Amino acid sequence: MSPKYIYFFGNGSAEGSADMKHLLGGKGANLAEMTNLGIPVPPGFTITTEVCDAYYKKNQQYPEGLAEEIERNLSQLEKLMGAKLGDAENPLLVSVRSGAAASMPGMMDTVLNLGLNPDAIKGLMKKTGNERFAWDAYRRFITMFGDVVMGVERHHFEEILDKYKKKTRVKSDTELTAEQLKNIVEEFKVIYKKKTRESFPHDPKVQLQKAINAVFASWNNPRAIKYRQLYDIKGLLGTAVNVQAMVFGNMGNDSATGVCFTRNPSTGENKFYGEFLINAQGEDVVAGIRTPEPIADLEKEMPDAYSQLVKYKNILENHFKDVQDIEFTIQESRLFMLQTRTGKRTARAAVKLAVDMAREGLIDKKTAISRIDPGQLDQLLHPTFDPKAKREIVAVGLPASPGAATGRVVFCAEDAERLAEKNEKVILVRKETSPEDIGGMHASQGILTTRGGMTSHAAVVARGMGKCCVAGCGSLNVDYKNQNFKVNGRVIKKGEYISLDGSSGEVMLGQVSTIEPKLSGDFATLMEWADEYRKLKIRTNADTPEDARKARELGAEGIGLCRTEHMFFGENRIDSVRQMILSAPDVKNLKAKISFLEKELAKAANDKADVLKKELMLVKKELKEPLVSYSSALKNLLPMQRRDFEQIFKAMDGLPVTIRLLDPPLHEFLPQEEYNQKEIAKKMKLSLKEIQEKVSALHELNPMLGHRGCRLGVTYPEIYDMQVQAIIEAACNMKKKGITVYPEIMLPIISTEQEFSVLKDNVHKIAKDVMQKKNMQIEYMVGTMIELPRAALIADKIAKHAEFFSFGTNDLTQMTFGFSRDDVGSFVPEYLEKGILEKDPFQVLDQEGTGQLVEIGIHKGRSIRSNLKVGICGEHGGNPQTISFCHKIGMNYVSCSPFRVPIARLAAAQASLQQPVSRATV
Ligand code: PEP
Ligand code: MG
Asked: Which CATH number belongs to the domain containing residue 488 in this structure?
């Protein structure tokens, strides 16, 4: 039996269903489902995504038998409708629409009113008795067909239309008469021929075939490709093509077309939401060309159609158990549903919808948790405008997508992308946006449009992206030519700062200050639900008490990484740090010299001994100065570090705090500019030359592989001693004040068992001294970071000494790939573009390679210490995909930056719902 390429729907039954999205695309599958539910859907048929796949694989040739299948389905449709394509008595008109399994709003092509030709127009006039409508449909068809199928730019047609409107002094298309539209159609055909060098096709079957080709071709148009990249849409066969009988919202004042959502997709409020236009076709609503009316007004205008619409939207939401984004058309008071799909929503709405629906009993808690994309929560963790800040409001538009955005005004997508690349914050200001603007919208902080409503392209795309958007701000007069906009007598030029409040629709001058977000209401509820299901603990990477407090507020259950070096950069500390670093090598060399001379002296004969003694004295004298400098620098740093640790312990009262001893190569702290070098020379009473010599002596060719991490602890033990002393003293001081402390001292860049065991012994020695002096006992642990492949491979040996492991996957990725983490910008983007890498391995853990090392490390570590506590503290700890992997391989916790804590809580819950038992649970 030959494969089935087409699925028919109509007359209350369909061959497809909602679970066939992969094959029929979202639109086709749901049209079939709606038909089966008894909802009025114009009949039609769906050509499968497999045909699209075959079309691309076979050099744009269709599979055998497809033409006959199209013919058969078309006859079935004609029979059902009692109308024929191109018929002079009763013509059938169809729409040809794209629709892939993943929704890509506006990115692919659509042709409406297909089937019109000189015969069919007569038939359409007879059938409808509406001459004006028929010519209007024809001119729209030529425009769409010319643009979508033949690449004749729309503006050629729009210019002719504008010419007629000017000539007849009318403002709106709807005011043009039948006669004028007829003339317009003739002019459209002329321009079509001029641009394509062929006549506009009259044969409806030729029209249909060409339109089907164009829709399949649009799967790979640049904006669709970009959209798939942006949203990481992969693994689809292509688009399906839906050929469906046309219904008309532009047949007069008893006709309308609209877009609606079963609940508010911006706020999540359970209120019917949407808009419509009387006497218009669907494209007018989505393109934002005319500003539509709110859906509630439809009740007054067409009460019967409205009550039917409410009935069907309720059926659909109950059936799909999620917010539906619906397109409908009312033709001469009769309602038709043209599309339903899961509504794209802002993060705020997503959270409210999930919590509300679970409370209503429509879904369960687990579904509520699983339904939210953890990455999307990022939007809720961004600052909002400070209510106390002064706002100079110049205009108010529609609050199309929430958020607080500030940036420089730009008027085109290219400028937005160009400036964003230079790290400039921009606001894209357009009359309306179109699918071509997608890259620029993505690059902007916010989008401001003068036309269009809550369901215009700008609004829908911005909500999907989580971008702030103010739409339909009609009081703005945008002048693309002069690159400015005028509002209330003011002129705002390109490059000037404005701020947008996507929740109120306010447009403000200048940069309005913002405040930190809070975790409360539905967001907090959802987090509590997530906590019921997750197995992973969530810690944070925090180096300051403020970060620690913030992270705890957001749900952190401890600190997984406190990078002590960040504390060294404070204004009053860096001098002491520099003093310590600059004197350290001298101390080390001179000490080595002394120990050598002492050994020589012990075995020397009398005459040589005198010389050695003299030399020893001189070296000891020489040591005095740097030693004083070194010791005093360490002494200065000790109380500062202790204070930091005390505050962090306090913020994390009762929770574990992992503190990593100094990690980066020392030269990172040194002044590289001559002017700074002069300053430090003066402070240390050395010459500029001496400082420069020391700086250059510390220079390394490959610092990431050089004198860093525990290697510093081995060669400059006093630095680690000072840090351990500060940690344990801080712990004692806080414990005395009733704070419960769990310090975990962590050694970085360990590659051998001996490194760890030597340094660990030293940590215990210092800790013991401090505790003895303070006459107190502190429960603390000493563990290691696993950042080097060698450490992962000998993890069983390290685990003999280490009480915990924390995978430093930033370095582990760097060392596994051999990609410098500071230089990947020069080639990783191209690797991603060419598909050599699927994901940036510094953002999403490479499970195949680096992940294998992590698994080996855990397995070997726990083979020696079965209850070994294991976590991750590289940047990957906040990445949902990596979190799922960490759950699967049995880690105890992930640690991420404070603002990713809620994301990690949700991702951990989702991982555990997907995989209740992890592989190596301890
Ligand atoms: C790591 O390497 O993953 C890590 C957390 O340490 P850092 O980023 O400070 O090198
Ligand atoms: Mg590291």
From this structure: 3.50.30.10
CA distance 47 to 242: 6
Q: Is the beta carbon of 811 within 6 A of some atom in ligand 1?
A: yes
Kindly state the DSSP code that residue 471 receives in the 8-state scheme: E
Q: Considering every ligand atom, which ligand is closest to the CA of 561? A: 1
Nearest CA to ligand 1 atom 1: 808
Give the active site residue among 873, 876, 886, 887.
Answer: 873
Name the residue of 704, 811, 854 whose CB sits within 8 Å of the most ligand 1 atoms, as the mutation to test its pocket. Answer: 811
Judgement on whether residues 217 and 307 belong to the same structural domain of the protein: no
pLDDT digits (tens, 9 = 90+) for 665-720: 888 888 878 887 888 888 778 899 988 988 888 888 888 899 999 999 999 999 99
Catalytic (active site) residue 873: yes
343-352 tens-digit pLDDT: 999 888 999 9
The angle, 0 to 180 degrees and rounded to 10, between the axes of the packed helices 901-914 and 521-533 is 40
Domain limit, last residue, from 451, 480, 515? 515
Nearest one of 635, 656, 647, 636 to 778, comparing CA atoms: 656
Give one DSSP letter per residue of 816-848, joined into a string.
Answer: HHT--TTTGGGTHHHHHHTTSSSS-TTTS--TT
Separation of 519 CA from ligand 1 center, angstroms?
28
Asked if 412 is an active-site residue, the reply is no
Positions at the binding site for substrate: 563, 660, 787, 808-811
Cβ of 809 less than 6 Å from ligand 1: yes
Residues with CB under 5 A from ligand 2 (ion): 787, 808, 811
Which tens digit of pLDDT belongs to each residue from 784-836? 999 999 999 999 999 999 999 999 999 999 999 999 888 877 788 889 888 89
75 and 145 in a common domain: yes
Assign residue 212 the CATH number of its domain: 3.30.1490.20
Q: How far is the CA of 697 from the centre of ligand 1 (A)?
A: 25
Ligand 1 pocket, mutate which of 873, 876, 894 (most atoms under 8 A from CB)? 873
Which residues, 6 or more positions from 509, have their beta carbon under 8 angstroms from its beta carbon? Answer: 392, 394, 490, 492, 496, 497, 498, 499
Q: Which of 212, 245, 278 is the last residue of a domain?
A: 245
Contacts with 279 (C-beta within 8 Å, 6 or more apart), sequence order:
174, 249, 250, 251, 252, 253, 255, 256
Name every residue whose Cβ is closer than 8 Å to that of residue 53 and which is 6 or more positions away in sequence. Answer: 237, 238
- Residue 391 lies in domain: 383-515
Tell the residue nearest (CA) to atom 6 of ligand 1.
Answer: 808
DSSP character string of 650-684: HHTTTSEEEEEPP-S-GGGGS--SHHHHHHHHHHH
